[in-house]
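Take a specimen:
=====
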Amino acid sequence: MKAVVLDTNALMLPYQCGINLEKELSRLLGICRIIVPVTVVEEMENLAQKDGSVGRAAKLGLSIVRKRGFRLVRTESQGDDGVLETALRMDAAILTNDKELKKRAKEMNLPVIYLRGEDRLEMEEIL
């Protein structure tokens, strides 16, 4: 089974773009396991305290994680380093629109999934 690690940016996409992450990942990969580092959830909880669209996007992202039962994993590292650590450990792709994280993932030969256009995910595989 394929696995995908979500970063904070990815969890904001359902609110920001109206995208259904599970449906799009299923279209790309078939059945896959969705993984979220605990540090990403903690960052989302902090963002959820904010007013405006950022707070609303974070609340929706947290709701999706909790309702859909995505697998939560602990990491040694924080932030992007925790996402990369998880992807390497789980042999997983990374879903992000963060340019710096995408660049680092490619350097580590990790597949990257990103938003293409306004409502579709696309995967950039490493050859």
Q: What stands out?
A: The longest strand covers residues 32-37. The CA atoms of residues 39 and 79 lie 7 Å apart.
